C-alpha cells in the first residue's frame, strides 16, 4: 500500500463518493428536509440524532458529537487508517490509486491554478453576454430567461480573438498556462496565442464542488464545428463528467435521472422545473459516466432525439448502462422532437406524461425491430416474430424473460408456447442484451490499420486531412475515437501548426489517451507522391469491407430462411434483392482485395 496517496485521488474520492449511499450501507437513513437522519452508529440511542448532509458531504451526530466527511466515516466505522479508508473508497469508485510526492504537489498547484483561470474566464464570458444583444436575443428565442441564464452561468465569447487573452494576462496569468488550460490556441506560423472560443455562446462545465472545469461553445450563425468543447486538461476529462451534474447533485431527490443529448436540453428542462436531467459532453456515453448516473438516480431514463442518429445513440447508451447493471427506460417524444422543442410545443405536463409512458430497453429493441417488417403480411409477420424470439432469447433473467413473453403474446396475438418454441430454434449468440458479462477483449477490427494509415496521411498535410475527412464522412460512420483524432488534426491546421513535429507534439498532448494508437501512426511508411490516390483506395477498401460484411450477414439470413420448414418467399426475395444491390456496389468499387492496402 502506498505510504502517501496523491492529492488528486483524495480529491476525486471526495468529489465522487455519495456520502448518503456510503453511510446508508450500514445506517438506516430517512430523508428529512435537506438532511438524512438515522440512529448514530457510534453510540447507543433510541431517537435518531445522526444527520447526513449530502450537498455538504458531511455527517454530524447531535448526541455524541461525532462528525466529518465520507473518509472520516469509513475510518471510524471500519477502524481504518486514513490511507486505508481512501484506498477502500477509491477501489469502490474505480479510481486508480497513485502515490503522492513532490510531483503530485506540483500537479495539485497546477490544477488549482487552472480552476482559478476557468473561473475568471467564466465571469468574463458572463459579463460579455450581459451586453451582447445578439447572444441575449438568441437565448430569449430559445425561451431561456435571465434567472436560468445566471443559474447555469451562461456567457458569450467575442469574435475578436484576443479579448479573453488580454483580460487574463492583466489578471497575472501567462499565455503558456492559459494554453494548457485550453483557454487559448496557438498559431505556430505567427508565434501568436489567441482565444480558443470565438463568437460562441458559452456553457461552463461545473463539477459537484462548484468548480469550473471546462467549457462548451455553440457557434451563433455560420461556422464549424457547431459545438466546440474544452479538450483534455489536468482538470477536465470529458468522458468522466456530465453536464448539469452540479445542479442535479444539489437539487434532485435522486429518485430518477434523465439522460439527454445536449446542453440546451438540460437547460430547457431545468427552466421547466425538471431538475434531474444531465447530458454527456460531446462524446458517446462512457462507463465512467454510467457510474455517475447510477449514483445520482435510482431510475434511469434516456431521452435522445427521435431521428436515426438518436436511435443509434440510445442503443449505444443502453449497452453501456447494461454493463453497469443499469436497466434504463426510453422516453419517446411525439413528432421526433428533442426535449427543448417538445416542451415549447406541448408544455412540461405533456413531457412528464411522456416520461411516465417510457418503455423498457427490451421493448425499445422490439419496437425498432417492428419497423423492419410489414406486419400486414402473414409471411413478414412470421419473420418478425422470429426476430422477437431472438431478442427475448438474449434476456438473461428467466423472470424478466417470462414477463416479456406474456407481453409479446398479448400484444401480437400469439401463444407463449409458440414463442418459446421459436426461441428454442435461435442459435447461440455471441452477445446478449445483458452486457455485464461482456468480454474485455473485443475482436480485432480488420479496418483498423487502414484507418491508422489514413490518419498518418492526414498528419502530413492539410489537403490530405481534408480529403480523408470528406471521404470518410460521406461513406461511413467513423468510430468515436478516430473521429475525435481526425477533428483534432483539423483543429491543429486551423491553429497554424505547419510542421509535422509540431502537430505530433500537440496531438500527443491533447489526446494522451490515444498515445498507443498515435505511436502506431508514426511508424507507418507513406508514399506521399501517390498520397491522394492511396487515400481514395483506402477509403474505398474500408467501405467495400463494410459492404461485404453486410453481404455475408444477408447470406446467413437467407440460408437460415431456406432451412426453415416453411420459409417466407416474400422475405427471401426481399433479402436477395438487397444482396444483388450490395454485390453491384461492391463490384463498382473495383478489385481491391479483402485485406486492402496496409491491412
Keywords:
single chain, 599 residues, alpha+beta, 5-stranded antiparallel β-sheet, 5-stranded mixed β-sheet, 26 helices, 11% strand
Tell me about this structure.
- There is one protein chain.
- By secondary structure, the chain is α+β, with helices and mostly antiparallel strands.
- The chain contains 26 helices and 16 strands.
- Strands 1-2-3-4-5 form a five-stranded antiparallel beta sheet. It has a five-stranded mixed beta sheet with strand order 13-12-14-15-16. Strands 6-9-10-11 form a four-stranded antiparallel beta sheet, covered by helices on one side.
- Helix 14 packs across helix 15 (348-356) and helix 20 (448-460) runs antiparallel to helix 21.
- 32% of the residues are buried.
- The model is unreliable at 434-446 and 591-599 (pLDDT under 50).
Strand order of the largest sheet: 1-2-3-4-5
Mean pLDDT: 82
Uncertain residue ranges: 434-446, 591-599
* Radius of gyration from CA coordinates: 27 Å
Give the distance, in angstroms, between the N- and C-terminal Cα atoms: 44 Å
The largest sheet, given as strand count, sense and whether it forms a barrel, is: 5 strands, antiparallel
Structural class: alpha+beta
Oligomer: single chain
General form: globular
Please give the count of helices: 26
Count of individual beta strands: 16
Strand content: 5-15%
**What share of residues is helical?**
40-55%
